[in-house]
Write a structure and sequence with these properties.
This protein is α/β, with parallel strands linked by helices and about 375 residues long. It is built from 15 helices and eight strands. The protein has two domains: about 260 residues, TIM Barrel (Alpha-Beta Barrel); about 90 residues, no CATH class. Bound molecules: flavin mononucleotide (FMN). Flavin mononucleotide (FMN) binds next to loops.
Length: about 375
């Protein structure tokens, strides 16, 4: 999620609950291939997050071919093409959900990305696809920071697509049939059209129809939209017969969301032996002390990775953590003005003085050494 699922958030999520797979913020293929260096910071990740998939957007197949080399060279576990972003500056230029209107171009892009993956796995040097030498050096430096090695083993990674039900009307059956011709490993469907943006409820019946179209193929169909709990995960998987779900906004301020995924999996499979019984509430409700610990760890990771200059980007996360406990609104009002992890620590300490929460302050962990991999040289 753009502006949200950066490397700091994903690391906290991986440590708190570990989803089966995680995605980067979407990144423009043009920026990857020839944009300024700092734009590659959306492709920083840590080994703890794996499997981690890089999500790209754009409309130029040649750039997808080049960018696929970069994604592979950085050691990602998959490449996902965004065909669902509704924002005006992305979709109206023909990228993101704009591709639903140009299925031939969508095909071409998928083929170019796959060819890039195949050629890279076959040994083609990333320096041979027209990237500037400085970009190649930056990729190597990112790898060294993450894993201590400048390069990664060559292998073919899966190609997937994330999309919506349609542009201005639901055309999901035809659209999925088009996409299936390119045999992506996974198609994720957000149950709204571009025109709906985020309005109304996600249409899981339409997602279920998409799953039926993809049934019997080797492509996994994953549904997305409005999942707020692990009970929702189990219910949607069972009802729509999808092979999995993506969770976005439900994990904001709750990076421990995925802790009980095994219980949801058991429920979705109809197994009562290993999971809680149907109807039983099994979401993790982290208590305040735990919540504040995670919030502070998140703030410190963010600062270590992106520095103070970019700390304002962290504020929305701080706001999301401040809900559902006494005087949360007052704390949120201060948090959204924080400029450093030290500010966050101070606000938590002040709160603890006014509430019986001394353990939260006393036990807040000392600055955990951020993995060196998280700072991009
Ligand atoms: C702030 C924000 C940023 C998003 N950025 C992306 C993105 O970069 N790539 C993407 O595929 N979807 C993006 N989405 C859409 C979400 O991935 C997801 O499809 C949508 O929010 C519905 O799922 P949810 O109800 O679980 O959040 C974004 C959504 C929001 C609210």
């Amino acid at each position: 999620m753009d502006g949200v699922t950066d490397a700091a958030f994903r690391l906290v999520v991986a440590r708190q609950g570990r989803p089966d797979v995680t995605f980067t913020e979407f990144t423009s293929v043009g920026d990857i291939c020839r944009g300024p260096d700092f734009l590659l910071s959306s492709l920083i990740f840590s080994e703890e997050e794996r499997p981690v998939v890089a999500q790209l957007y754009g409309k130029d197949p040649a750039l997808f071919y080049q960018a696929a080399h970069v994604v592979c060279e950085l050691g990602f576990d998959g490449l996902d093409i965004n065909m669902g972003c509704p924002s005006r500056n992305v979709a109206s230029s023909g990228s993101g959900a704009g591709l639903i209107k140009t299925p031939d171009l969508a095909h071409e892009i998928m083929r170019a990305a796959r060819q890039g993956i195949t050629d890279w796995a076959g040994g083609q040097p990333v320096a041979a696809v027209g990237l500037k030498q400085a970009r190649v050096e930056l990729i190597r430096a990112m790898n060294v920071n993450r894993s201590g090695r400048p390069d990664v083993p060559r292998r073919s990674i899966p190609l997937s697509v994330k999309t919506r039900l349609g542009y201005d009307s639901v055309v999901i059956e035809q659209w999925i049939s088009h996409l299936l011709e390119e045999r992506p490993a996974v198609i994720s469907v957000h149950g709204r059209t571009l025109q709906q943006m985020y309005r109304g409820a996600a249409d899981w019946a339409a997602i279920g129809r998409a799953a039926r179209v993809a049934g019997g193929t080797e492509t996994l169909l994953v549904g997305n939209g409005d999942i707020q709990s692990m009970q929702d995960v189990a219910d949607r998987i069972r009802e729509a017969q999808v092979q999995g779900v993506l969770v976005g906004r439900g994990a904001l301020g709750t990076p421990w969301f995925f802790r009980n995924k095994e219980a949801a999996r058991a429920l979705a499979n109809g197994s009562e032996a290993t999971g809680p019984r149907l109807g039983e509430r099994f979401d993790v409700q982290a208590d305040r002390v735990e919540r504040f610990r995670v919030m502070l760890e998140h703030a410190r990771q963010f600062e270590a990775l992106f520095g103070n200059d970019r700390f304002p980007r962290m504020r929305k996360h701080l706001g999301w953590y401040c809900k559902g406990f006494p005087h949360a609104a007052a704390m949120r009002a201060r948090m959204v003005r924080a400029s450093s992890s030290a500010d966050v620590e101070r606000i938590v300490a002040d709160y603890a003085l006014s509430e019986p929460l001394s353990a939260a302050v006393a036990d807040v962990p000392a600055r955990s050494a951020p993995p060196a991999s998280l700072s991009c040289a």
